[in-house]
Inverse folding.
């Protein structure tokens, strides 16, 4: 049986060899995997000197990223953080990571944020860094804000001051006082909102310290309005009756309106209409209309009160026309009654003309005849601001729609003259004959504007124009401009040369300025330059003003007036003025009465017996 | 060869099994390490705790245990604790957190908690997160909408857009803004498409313009022009304009005010921007306007400035304007400041009344006390004694109090006057003058009876004149005319004239003339003259055409004189027409 034994031994050796080879393969397989994993890292893994090896785990989003709770990284290495798509995870990572950072590291992180290209990521990073830094050294955090765009400043200022105010309230308030106005208000708001654990009195004191009591009152009012928001009418009344000016609370009013609109729909427009909301009423109407102008306009169709209907629908189409003038126009034309429809069409036309003048001109035939001219004036005026000559050229395109384009030309030229009075004047003089009535019309406007730049030239050109058959001479406009907005001494220099029709009115205007400046006697003296028939009215005007501005001074001047007629006129004005504004004593009034002529005495009695 | 194949095969098998075994073992150990969704919070905390031991100041807490989170004073630590605690939370857990957050009493803490919870929940179930916003005050909702949609936009953009499209009004705008802001990785075209899809391209354009302006803010002029010349109405960009204006102010100083004036046409926006600059430096802002040569600009700017300044420091503003030139302007600005002061802080003004010059005290005190009287008239009356030394005579102030009281409670106000002032007291008459007018709105007959019950003055009109006047102003002409026959003699001329004036304004000149038939001859003459006078100003051309029809020669002459006189200052009639008018003059009027 030696063969069997030999066969058995051979088999064992074979099995052993097979096992060894198998084990060798197994070991090499295991080792090769380990070697490959350790010496050729995967994309998410870092092997740096300073950081521990990250354990790769699947995040809830399914990507192979570090868990936000386990995040580590070198200062400034934001890529790990923003590999998370979810902003929640980004915030988690940042808060966790930066909670371990000291001041120096935080400042370094801050510097690195400047390299984050994507703005939304940069904002998130900066917010968390500032929050952390503010907890350690808020003054340093404030310094960091110098690097930030002014558009981002407020948001980060809020983060900073909310943190600052919990640890070092007094210091936060003190620093806030050093900030420029608008930022001080942001800081104050933040402090008050964060420290809602303080008493009302403490909050008010902080507000006073930061010269922002309005801000405090607004927050109180808003909080009160917020509590009653289940009944928006109550919130509305809270805002109306508080001690804060309505215009400062426009946003809050809008918020309440939003809640109210959800309850009662566009009927909220009627609520706005009823309220005495000086200054913001129409802003609120427009804001509601902006949401759904078509729906808002449809609401107004059913209103009974015609004044309300007109007022609301006007505001709605005004807003609508900015966005979609054609739709607004179509809706306006179907409005009832037709009187309001006409008004609405005008509103649409004017708005369209203002916001998109060229498109409007191209579509002028869609506007009915009545509002065409006025709205075209607006359109051309708008174009003329940029390019008056082009505006003039475009006039021919609308001739068949309006017939006479002279008023359009006037608007264009006046607009031109606002910026370039010399050029506009020259153009008129070069393009219209002396006898052309349109030249006069145009020159009234341009010379008035030229007067503010070059009063001498404007006046001379005005005088050179023939006197019109109706109305004042052109120098009237020139002189009014000089008197009201220029130099009164220049106006006085020109006075003797002013022609007849304009004289009375111009002298009165000069007199007004002189009396307002306290130069009463000089004003009186001027009157003697007028024809005698015009002096009476002139002196009446001067005395009326003098008695109104400074009755005591007029009373004291009574005896020094040039004539008894003047004294009587003055006395008469003093007596009538004193009835409404009793500055003079009864004795003084009686004394003034003694200066009245018989005629003036009768007039006074008549007045007093009324 | 066969042997070699067997060896190779055996080796390869061992190799393959070795590799697979390592991978399988590693995979199993990863599963054990990663906490699945339905693992209890305790297990999560156990793994989190190890990490959080490394966190310096935060810790994870049980669901809804906000007291542990808000025991940290630092806002940042509160956030860290919240984010850590909520990490890995399931949707039901987040719902529990949310429900508990509603019980947080302190609003600032509640807001922090809810913001983080919603952000987390949105990542898991955005629709549910949106539904939770129904629980939130509308004053806070915009902030949370922004949070929800910022998160939603990154995890499921299409879903976010679809959800935003179901929103209305301001909320849709807020949602769109949040989407566009958080998805600043998308191309401009794509972002514009989103805005168009949400029917609000304006928001995209506005944000694009703001971004462009922000990028050029180092050159504020460029940023300014970007905002002015874009396709967005300036009223939608006031905030951005204000930011740029402040930046520009930092660069060029107060000249920015002139730029604002000349380049912003909308007066409301202009005022907002000037206010912002004023807030930075009110003294400097006002001083800048002193040097302006154009009085229109000077006036426009200085009034805005002092109105803003007066809100915070009325006394400082008053001191500053006292040296303003010209003096008329100084006086006018001071009045403006006082008005703002008294409107905002009537008590404060009353307490500090001595800072105003003596002749400027009465008017603001009248306003202040009237304001106080609206809420508590009796208290306002009681306070009068505190300012007597500063003004002497408080009678006009009391008039204001009673007047304000009468607007709301005319009966009570009138009764108080009747009880506290004797019939002969002239102040009773003054006080009733306003109070009865307010009563007339609600009860004209009672007001009229009380009016004619008061003694008629020696000079001036009886109180019934004021009652009738109120009715006329309220448009109740018919009631006013009905009361006329009972008006006392010495009040007849002016009361009849009052009603006649209104009829002339309504182009009812014949009816106006007809009223005169109640009057005696002497009064009727003056009455007709009054009608003609009013007619001259209301419609001179119509009077011109009606000259022939006037009842008497004297009246025609009077009318002609009025027309000639009026035409000197407002030449509506031609020279020929004036010549024709002159033919109606009788000799004494001609002189």
């Amino acid at each position: 049986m030696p063969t069997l034994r030999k066969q058995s031994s051979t088999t064992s050796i074979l099995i052993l060899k097979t096992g060894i080879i198998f084990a060798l393969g197994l070991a090499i397989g295991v080792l090769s995997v380990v070697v490959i994993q350790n010496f050729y890292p995967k994309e998410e893994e870092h092997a740096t000197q300073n950081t521990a090896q990250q354990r790769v785990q699947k995040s809830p989003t399914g990507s192979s990223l570090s868990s936000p709770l386990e995040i580590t990284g070198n200062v400034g290495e934001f890529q790990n953080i923003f590999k998370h798509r979810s902003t929640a995870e980004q915030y988690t990572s940042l808060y966790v990571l930066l909670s371990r950072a000291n001041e120096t590291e935080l400042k370094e992180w801050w510097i690195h944020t400047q390299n984050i290209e994507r703005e939304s990521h940069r904002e998130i990073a900066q917010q968390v860094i500032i929050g952390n830094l503010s907890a350690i050294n808020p003054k340093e955090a404030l310094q960091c804000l110098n690097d930030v765009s002014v558009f981002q400043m407020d948001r980060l200022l809020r983060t900073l001051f909310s943190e600052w105010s919990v640890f070092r309230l007094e210091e936060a308030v003190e620093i806030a006082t050093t900030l420029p106005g608008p930022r001080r208000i942001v800081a104050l708001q933040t402090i008050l909102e964060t420290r809602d654990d303080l008493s009302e009195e403490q909050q008010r004191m902080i507000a006073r310290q930061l010269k922002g009591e309005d801000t405090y009152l607004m927050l109180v009012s808003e909080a009160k309005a917020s509590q009653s928001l289940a009944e928006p009418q109550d919130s509305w009344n809270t805002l109306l009756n508080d001690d804060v000016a309505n215009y400062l609370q426009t946003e809050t009013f809008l918020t309440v309106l939003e809640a109210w609109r959800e309850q009662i729909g566009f009927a909220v427009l009627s609520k706005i209409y009823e309220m005495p909301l000086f200054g913001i009423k129409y802003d609120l109407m427009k804001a509601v209309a902006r949401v759904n102008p078509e729906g808002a306009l449809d609401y107004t169709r059913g209103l009974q009160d015609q004044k309300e209907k007109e007022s609301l629908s006007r505001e709605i189409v005004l807003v609508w026309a900015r966005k979609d003038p054609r739709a607004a126009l179509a809706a306006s034309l179907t409005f009832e009654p037709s009187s309001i429809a006409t008004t609405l069409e005008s509103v649409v036309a004017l708005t369209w003309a203002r916001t998109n003048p060229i498109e409007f001109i191209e579509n002028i035939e869609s506007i009915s005849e009545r509002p065409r001219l006025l709205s075209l004036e607006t359109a051309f005026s708008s174009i003329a601001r940029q390019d008056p000559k082009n505006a003039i050229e475009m006039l021919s395109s609308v001739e068949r729609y309006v017939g006479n384009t002279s008023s359009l030309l006037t608007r264009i030229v006046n607009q031109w003259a606002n910026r370039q009075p010399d050029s506009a004047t020259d153009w008129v003089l070069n393009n219209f004959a002396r006898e052309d009535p349109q030249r006069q019309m145009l020159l009234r406007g341009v010379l008035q504007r030229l007067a503010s730049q070059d009063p001498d030239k404007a006046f001379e050109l005005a005088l050179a124009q023939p006197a019109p058959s109706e109305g004042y001479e052109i120098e009237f406009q020139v002189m009014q401009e000089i008197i009201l907005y220029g130099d009164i001494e220049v106006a006085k220099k020109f006075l003797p040369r002013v022609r007849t029709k304009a004289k009375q009115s111009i002298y009165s205007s000069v007199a007004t300025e002189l009396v307002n400046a306290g130069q009463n006697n000089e004003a009186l003296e001027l009157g003697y330059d007028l024809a005698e028939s015009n002096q009476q009215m002139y002196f009446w005007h001067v005395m009326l003003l003098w008695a109104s501005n400074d009755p005591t001074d007029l009373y004291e001047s009574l005896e020094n007036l040039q004539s008894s007629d003047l004294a009587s006129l003055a006395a008469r004005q003093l007596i009538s003025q004193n009835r409404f504004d009793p500055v003079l004593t009864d004795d003084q009034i009686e004394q003034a009465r003694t200066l009245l002529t018989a005629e003036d005495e009768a007039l006074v009695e008549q007045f007093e017996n009324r | 060869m066969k042997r070699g194949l067997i060896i190779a095969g055996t080796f390869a098998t061992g190799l393959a099994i070795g590799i697979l075994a390592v991978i399988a073992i590693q995979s199993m150990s990863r599963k054990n390490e990663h906490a699945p969704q339905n693992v209890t919070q305790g297990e999560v905390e156990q793994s989190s705790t190890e990490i959080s031991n490394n966190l310096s100041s935060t810790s994870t807490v049980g669901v809804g245990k906000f007291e542990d989170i808000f025991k940290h004073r630092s806002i940042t630590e509160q956030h860290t604790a919240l984010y850590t605690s909520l990490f890995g939370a399931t949707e039901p857990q987040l719902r529990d957190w949310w429900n508990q957050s509603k019980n947080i009493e302190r609003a600032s803490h509640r807001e922090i908690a809810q913001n983080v919870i919603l952000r987390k929940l949105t990542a898991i179930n955005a629709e549910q997160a949106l539904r939770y916003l129904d629980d939130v005050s509308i004053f806070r909702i915009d902030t949370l909408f922004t949070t929800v949609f910022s998160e939603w936009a990154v995890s499921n953009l299409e879903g976010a857009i679809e959800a935003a499209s179901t929103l209305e009004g301001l909320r849709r705008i807020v949602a769109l803004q949040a989407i566009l802001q958080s998805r600043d990785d998308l191309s401009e075209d794509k972002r514009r498409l989103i805005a168009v899809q949400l029917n609000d391209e304006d928001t995209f354009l506005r944000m694009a313009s703001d971004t462009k302006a922000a990028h050029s803010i180092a050159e504020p002029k460029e940023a300014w022009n970007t905002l002015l010349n874009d396709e967005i109405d300036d009223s939608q960009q006031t905030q951005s304009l204000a930011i740029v204006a402040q930046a520009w102010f930092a660069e060029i100083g107060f000249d920015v005010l002139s730029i604002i004036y000349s380049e912003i046409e909308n007066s409301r926006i202009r005022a907002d921007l000037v206010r912002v600059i004023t807030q930075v430096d009110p003294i400097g802002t006002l001083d800048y306007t002193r040097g302006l040569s154009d009085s229109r600009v000077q006036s426009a700017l200085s009034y805005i400035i002092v109105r803003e300044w007066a809100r915070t420091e009325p006394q400082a503003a008053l001191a500053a304007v006292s040296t303003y030139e010209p003096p008329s302007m100084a006086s006018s600005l001071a009045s403006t400041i006082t008005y703002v002061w008294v409107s905002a802080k009537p008590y404060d003004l009353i307490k500090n009344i001595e800072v105003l010059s003596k002749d400027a005290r009465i008017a603001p005190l009248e306003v202040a006390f009237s304001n106080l009287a609206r809420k508590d008239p009796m208290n306002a009356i009681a306070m009068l004694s505190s300012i007597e030394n500063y003004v002497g005579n408080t009678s006009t102030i009391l008039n204001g109090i009673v007047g304000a009281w009468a607007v709301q409670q005319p009966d009570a106000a009138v009764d108080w006057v009747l009880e506290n002032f004797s019939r002969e007291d002239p102040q009773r008459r003054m006080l009733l003058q306003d109070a009865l007018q307010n009563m007339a709105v609600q009860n004209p007959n009672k007001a009229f009876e009380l009016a004619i019950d008061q003694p008629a003055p020696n000079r001036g009109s009886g109180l019934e004149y004021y009652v009738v006047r109120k009715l006329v102003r309220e448009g109740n002409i018919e009631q006013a005319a009905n009361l006329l026959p009972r008006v006392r003699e010495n009040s007849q001329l002016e009361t009849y004239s009052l009603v006649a004036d209104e009829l002339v304004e309504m182009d009812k000149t014949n009816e106006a003339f007809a009223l005169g038939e109640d009057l005696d001859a002497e009064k009727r003459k003056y009455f007709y003259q009054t009608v003609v006078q009013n007619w001259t100003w209301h419609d001179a051309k119509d009077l011109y055409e009606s000259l022939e029809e006037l009842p008497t020669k004297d009246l025609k002459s009077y009318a002609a004189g009025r027309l000639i006189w009026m035409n000197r200052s407002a030449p509506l009639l031609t020279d020929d027409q004036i010549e024709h008018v002159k033919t109606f003059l009788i000799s004494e009027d001609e002189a």
